[in-house]
Design goal:
The chain has helices spanning about 20-25, 40-45, 55-75, 95-110, 120-125, 175-185, 195-200, 225-240, 250-280, 295-305, 325-335; strands at about 1-5, 10-20, 35-40, 85-90, 115-120, 145-150, 155-160, 165-170, 280-285, 310. It is an alpha/beta fold and about 350 residues long. The protein folds into 2 domains: about 1-130 and about 320-355, Nucleotidyltransferase, domain 5, CATH 3.30.420; about 140-310, Nucleotidyltransferase, domain 5 (2-Layer Sandwich), CATH 3.30.420. The chain has a 5-stranded mixed beta sheet, with helices on both faces. The longest helix has 30 residues, at about 250-280. The site of zinc ion has 4 residues, from α5. Zinc ion binds near residues 120 and 151.
Length: about 350
């Protein structure tokens, strides 16, 4: 089965084609990724300091069809060879989701293709299985595994018993980790999106200049809280600038380092607890914050210490992309063919809890 994936939930137009035969034959899953095309709108939104929904929708309209053409030609396929279309149905920006959905449904109707709506986070959750590090023999006995989902809107620890069978073990009570990165970057006057900027600057920081709180570090559950950490960053910037002095580069680097250390310590402590509670031998890390080098290094060390296989998506699949949608669509259609949608109504779900998906 050839699946075309369409991702338009936020500020990336992502298209990809996945060939499901590799997964079915228990071969390395990443070999099934035949082609990818991606356009990031980051430059356009940068001047506003965040995503402008209307501009995002218009840009998805402008680029979706050319990117689909480009991706098909990279994959060496024509549209008639595609068997199914997977599109992001939610959560995300309503207008942006509608663009991908209407294109996917129109193509499915005009070309008589199967179609499936995918939960954006399910795409992130399964994308580490596209890691070239995944051992071939482990593809089928990978489940159950533990997943740390750290994106701009979500921070969740999940038990993945099977494709579509997800239990939330813990989640953030307020801000997501990515959101805390973005807000910290804004407070420090860094560019949008904040995650990469803060983590790069942290590499130049001197340890121990600031001690920031580790919210819920010793709580008995697996929940997170990052709002207080952001407030602590705000307090430090106010102290620094109260007599009119500017935030110099070293101040920003030192505070960035303290912030990253706090986030990484909280995330890795909860992951350690989750490993010991669940007994899982595989951890997958997904979502944009999974691109953070400090977090990657800490979790890899934790994996060695606890003899847990730690899987990350390839770096380009950490942030939003079409490959994770095509891949999730393939896995879901293989497992439950009846999930193919019969209605051609444009039905998006901007606020869709992951534990409410149908299997
Ligand atoms: O998964 P994603 O691309 O979009 C959502 O579905 O939210 O995640 C975006 C988030 C942003 O908050 C961004 O600042 C953060 O991921 N991010 C990072 C890094 N790269 C992206 N955070 C920390 N370090 C990074 N290297
Ligand atoms: Zn995402």
């Amino acid at each position: 089965m050839y699946i075309l994936g369409i991702e338009t939930s936020c500020d990336e137009t992502g298209i990809a084609v996945y060939d499901s035969r590799f997964w079915e034959a228990n071969q390395p899953a990443h070999l099934g990724l035949l082609g990818q095309s991606l356009f990031s709108q980051v430059k356009m939104h940068e001047i506003y300091g965040g995503v402008v929904p209307e501009l995002a929708s218009r840009d998805h309209i402008r680029l979706s069809l050319p990117l689909i053409d480009d991706c098909l030609s990279k994959s060496g396929l024509t549209i008639s060879q595609i068997d199914a279309i997977a599109y992001t149905k939610g959560p995300g920006l309503a207008g942006a989701l509608l663009v991908g959905t209407s294109i996917a449904k129109s193509m499915a109707f005009a070309l008589s293709k199967k179609i499936i709506g995918i939960h954006h986070l399910e795409g992130h959750l399964l994308s580490p299985l596209l890691s070239p590090d995944l051992k071939t023999s482990s593809t089928k006995d990978l489940f159950p595994f533990l997943a740390l989902l750290v994106s701009g809107g979500h921070t969740q620890l999940m038990l993945v018993k099977d494709i579509g069978d997800y239990t939330i073990l813990g989640e953030t009570l307020d801000d997501a980790a990515g959101e805390a990165f973005d807000k910290t970057a804004k407070l420090l006057g860094l560019s949008y999106p904040g995650g990469p900027a803060v983590s790069q600057l942290a590499c130049l920081g001197i340890q121990g200049k600031f001690v920031l709180p580790r919210p819920l570090l010793h709580s008995k559950n697996l929940d997170f809280s990052f709002a207080g950490l952001k407030t602590a960053v705000l307090t430090q910037t106010k102290i620094k600038t109260k007599d009119g002095s500017a935030m110099d580069d070293q101040f920003k680097a030192d505070l960035s380092l303290a912030f990253v250390e706090a986030v990484v310590e909280v995330l890795s402590k909860k992951v350690r607890d989750a490993i010991s509670i669940s007994g899982c031998k595989t951890l997958v890390v997904a979502g944009g914050v999974g691109a953070n080098t400090q977090l990657r290094a800490r979790l890899l060390a934790l994996g060695q210490e606890t003899q847990t296989q730690v899987l990350y998506p390839p770096l380009d699949l950490c942030t939003d992309n079409g490959a994770m949608i095509a891949f999730a669509g393939a896995l879901k259609l293989l497992k439950t063919p009846s999930l193919a949608e019969s209605t051609l109504a444009f039905d998006v779900n901007p606020r869709w809890p992951l534990d409410q998906i149908t299997n």
